[in-house]
C-alpha cells in the first residue's frame, strides 16, 4: 500500500505539527518490528530518542513514570490487550496526544472502532517506509488517516454512539478493566476473586461501579456493550 492509497479527513481540533513531535512511544511486542520502526522514525524525523514498550501495562507504567510522549504508535494486538482496549486505555492517560493504531488487520469494523475510540489514524503494517512516514507526518499535522480500502460507516449516529461508549469504558480503572475482561470471558465473581486475589465483596463493588459507568443493568448487557466496540477481541 502506498501513501496515495490512504484517505484523510480534517481533525476536529488542532494537533502539534510534525516538527514539534520530538518523543514517540512505540507499543509493540514484536522486537524486530519495534526496532525497525524506531530506527525508521529516528532517521526520517531526526529523533534522538524513541521510547518502546512491549505490553500495554508497561506502556501505562512508563507514561506514569516518564511522562507523556508527543505521539504514540500502538499495535492492535498485545500480550495483555486485544482489540480496542489499548486505545481506550491510553486515550484515558493521554487525552491530547495523537495515537496511531498499526496492524495487519484491516477489517472495517476494527478500524471504525479504533477511530471512534480516539485513534488519530489506523495504518497497515505492510506499508512501505515512505508511505509510513508520510502517513505519520500527516497525522501529526492534524489529519485522521485510514487505509483507502476502509469504507467508513455512513451512519453518523452509530459512530457517535461508538465514540460515546468508548469514552464510557475509558473511565474504568485498570482493575475494573481487568474485571470486565474476565466477565466477558464468562467468569463468575468467585473465579474473578481467586484470579485477581481480591475479596469477592470487592469484586461485587467493582462490578457495581462498572455497571454504573457504562450504563448497563446486567452482566450480559455489559458483555454486549464491550463486544459492540470489540474492546477485548480483535476478531
TrEMBL record:
Keyword Plastid: no
One Pfam family hit: GerE
Keywords for this protein: DNA-binding, Phosphoprotein
CDD domains linked: LuxR_C_like, REC_NarL-like
GO biological process: phosphorelay signal transduction system; regulation of DNA-templated transcription
Domain Response regulatory per the UniProt entry, residue ranges: 23-140
Domain HTH luxR-type: 165-230
Protein name: Response regulator transcription factor
The species this protein was found in: Paracoccus liaowanqingii
Amino acid at each position: 500500500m502506498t501513501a496515495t492509497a490512504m484517505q484523510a479527513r480534517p481533525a476536529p481540533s488542532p494537533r502539534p505539527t510534525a516538527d514539534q513531535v520530538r518523543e514517540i512511544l512505540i507499543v509493540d511486542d514484536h522486537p524486530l518490528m519495534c526496532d525497525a520502526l524506531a530506527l525508521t522514525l529516528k532517521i526520517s524525523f531526526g529523533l534522538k530518542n524513541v521510547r518502546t514498550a512491549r505490553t500495554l501495562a508497561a506502556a501505562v507504567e512508563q507514561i506514569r513514570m516518564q511522562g507523556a510522549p508527543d505521539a504514540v504508535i500502538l499495535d492492535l494486538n498485545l500480550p495483555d490487550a486485544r482489540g480496542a482496549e489499548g486505545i481506550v486505555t491510553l486515550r484515558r492517560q493521554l487525552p491530547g496526544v495523537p495515537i496511531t493504531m498499526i496492524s495487519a488487520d484491516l477489517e472495517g469494523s476494527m478500524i471504525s472502532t479504533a477511530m471512534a475510540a480516539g485513534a488519530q489514524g489506523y495504518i497497515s503494517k505492510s506499508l512501505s517506509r515512505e508511505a509510513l512516514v508520510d502517513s505519520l507526518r500527516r497525522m501529526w499535522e492534524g489529519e485522521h488517516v485510514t487505509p483507502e480500502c476502509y469504507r467508513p460507516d455512513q451512519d453518523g449516529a452509530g459512530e457517535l454512539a461508538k465514540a460515546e461508549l468508548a469514552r464510557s469504558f475509558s473511565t474504568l480503572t485498570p482493575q475494573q478493566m481487568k474485571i470486565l475482561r474476565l466477565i466477558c470471558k464468562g467468569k463468575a465473581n468467585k473465579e474473578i476473586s481467586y484470579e485477581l486475589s481480591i475479596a469477592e465483596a470487592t469484586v461485587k463493588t467493582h462490578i457495581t461501579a462498572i455497571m454504573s459507568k457504562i450504563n448497563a443493568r446486567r452482566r450480559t448487557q455489559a458483555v454486549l456493550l464491550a463486544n459492540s466496540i470489540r474492546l477485548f477481541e480483535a476478531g
